[in-house]
Amino acid sequence: MSLSESEIKNLKGLSITEVKDRLKKDGYNELPSSEKRNIKKIIFEVFKEPMFLLLVLAGLVYLLLGDVQEAILLLGFVFVVIGITVYQENKTEKALDALKNMSSPRALVIRDGKHSRIAGREIVIDDIIILNEGDRVPADVVILWERNVLVDESLLTGESVPVRKNSAENEDEKYNKLERDDLLFLFSGSLVVQGQAISRVVATGIKTEMGKIGKALESIKDEQTPLQKQTKKIVRDIFAIVVILCLSIVLFYGFQRGDWLTGILSGITLAMAMLPEEFPVVLTIFLALGAWRIAQKKVLARKISAVEILGAATVLCVDKTGTLTQNKMSIKKIYNGSEFCDLEKDNKNKLSENFHELIEYGMLASKKDPFDPMEKALNELGKKILYNTEHVHKKWVLEKEYPLSRELLALSHVWGMNEKDGCTVSAKGAAEAIIDLCHFDLIKKEKIMKCVDKMALDGLRVIGVAKSYCENEKLPSSQHDFDFEFIGLIGLADPIRNSVPDAIRKCYSAGIRVIMITGDYSSTAQNIAKQIGLKNSDQAITGAELEKMNPFELQEKIKKINIFSRVVPEQKLFIVNALKSNGEIVAMTGDGVNDAPALKSSHIGVAMGERGTDVARESSGLVLLDDNFSTIVEAVKTGRRVYDNLKKAMAYIVSVHIPIAGISFFPVLFGWPIVLYPVHIVFLELIIDPACSIVFEAEKEEENIMKRFPRNPKNSLFGKNILFLSLLQGLFSLLAVALVFLIALKIGQTEGEARALAFVTLIISNIFLILTNRSWSKNIISSFRNKNKALSAVLLGATLFLSVALYYPSLRDIFHFDFMHPHDIIIALSAGILSIIWFEVVKYICMKKGIELLR
């Protein structure tokens, strides 16, 4: 039969050893998902890349020309490119895998007699699971104990009407489709929409009902973000231009000079120079690693697109309790209907007998082993002052519970008194609800509400307590049918988190508005608002006032109001929609089932990880793992950093391709000797690829990142300002390389010497483009204070490779170089530095005038 309360308390669950044995035997509780991108698959994808195909084609042309050494070197570079790509992609995959594991549905289990929350995939057969309203059932289970459980099984059956469930008569209830009673079981994937249950796992993974019908678990999908779509279009347009130009060069060489093979090599070189194949790679890496970095700040990105828009948030709508406050309740003041007692001033252990009944019935209206901070505070106080008194009723049995509802914000417990006939009823809830249950007239109601306001002005959360009695007869269907007697009010304090005032200041300096939403009284909310430094803390809109407003009226008032009190979760959606109508980018926090619509409607839904329900997590883009407001602010900061670094990387990619493409095209246009061959382009790619992805991704945020207003998400990644400056960077670099090459030829140097001089200038200019784009608000020297291990590796690798190519005879021949003298290196170094000096001057002037370049 269903477990008794004493049996529930004695549940031990599985031991760690038993769990390990079952995991070995049955595996993890997960269904087969999409195929993982392993190294073989990544390499196969590299083989399909245009750059790889161009490299292979160039190698074949060299073989046809009889230049075996150059062909072998090119094909050798192919493996180096594959190695870099595999490293980058593998790092991205690991970050995504970590996010998938973190976003797995959580489950509250009993193991070794202790309650612990684990990932749903770690559940094994015979685990004891505790389920509450809003939880997603992680495996097939048999119910051992339940209270008013309603379950949504639409994922399995397609039926939207919730099903009521019962507890099994014995633990050996058969889990067999032909013999079982489905009302005794909860199935994987179903959602608890009401009540609580304790259950035992009977099937996991593919052996669950969901596994049998071939459903797959939802996981992080490779969805394209708006930025990825935008970039894909840019690459597609450039690719079309590249194809036309390359064909033109091949035809020009073929028909005008009769040298088809050289034409093909020149066409391949130009294609390799112009193709911005780094764009999609950089986006994927930045967004995936950005999500991983945000996870290090205790914020889980369930949707990669949330990382993209996070830095653009203009409004943060946050719950008061547990986010702005510590969610650690303590009773500060109580009222027994005639007098107040301030527990901070009076001795809690010697509380007057006049207040004992208030605490007694407050405890009776709470769970015996509570999780809720408010009920914990009641139980702790009760144990101190009522210990060994007639006010503690360990033998009483809970006969029925009337749950809290939107219509009546109060709950009642009906207790069977073993030694007496009849039942005692205890109720607690919002003061208005308790007044309603007691059927007070207007005069009594006003008297109580004055006391409520007095306590709320002290920043206290106020609840009312009432009692009733009923004979041993059929219990009524509604709490309203009891004849309740008002006992008193309890005022609880929930201190603010120490880090919140500073986080609020950071938001305001970053141009982000903060709105507090709470179910508490306006006076309580305003008191907290003053403590944390919220603007317009003297104004508030209540849920009742919100209900009467039309959308246009709310849109106007919400421009100034930062406090919404006595709000029920369903009303959050109105607030979100009003802010969105005003053009705001809204981040909304939530933890309950009823918060899901608002979370889904907001631009950035933020679910609570510690106290949030699974349905809230599933409706959100982000999950706040520690439920702390300051963590949201840090996530916004990280989101801005990701976007800033992405713009820097994109600016670098644009600027670095201009000199490479230009110096590849000029020989055709002006009849110069060929400057760059495919081998040179591949060498440059060995610097460009890791620089634009790994180096820029690892850069620290700009110092003023939280002192500027949020970006407009409608703005292109390549704003006119950034694109113009990037093009200028590239043109100055091209000018330096072209002048060095022409002057070298003019003063009588050989083609090989001129080519080597131009190539070294291009490499040095490339390196300084990396250095200058690391920060658009600091000079190169200042930016070196921020350590970047990836940058050091790229600089060291480029220097070593270049030295070998210049001074190792066999490689020098393959690169078509002649010997370079020390003064040649100095000329190339000077030209490379001069190509970016102008941008350093621009940064200095803008910094002095307070102008933002990276906008």
What structural class do you assign from the helix and strand content? alpha+beta
**Beta-strand share of residues:** 5-15%
Most strands sheet: 8 strands, mixed
Spatial arrangement of strands, main beta sheet:
8-22-21-20-9-17-19-18
The count of β-strands is: 22
Low-confidence stretches: 176-181, 215-223
Ends distance: 67 Å
Q: Per the principal axes of the C-alpha atoms, what is the gross shape?
A: elongated
User: What is the averaged pLDDT score?
Assistant: 82
Q: Portion of residues in helices?
A: 40-55%
| Rg calc | 34 Å
Supply the number of helical segments: 31
Description:
Strand 10 (330-335) and strand 11 (340-342) form a beta hairpin. The strands form 3 sheets. This protein has an 8-stranded mixed beta sheet with strand order 8-22-21-20-9-17-19-18, with helices on both faces. Strands 1, 2, 3, 4, 5, 6 and 7 form a 7-stranded antiparallel beta sheet that branches. A 7-stranded antiparallel beta sheet has the order 11-10-16-15-14-13-12. The chain has 31 helices and 22 strands. The model is unreliable at 176-181 and 215-223 (pLDDT under 50). 46% of the residues are buried. With 855 residues, it is α+β, with helices and mostly antiparallel strands.
Q: Features of this protein?
A:
single chain; 855 residues; alpha+beta; eight-stranded mixed sheet; seven-stranded antiparallel sheet; 31 helices; elongated
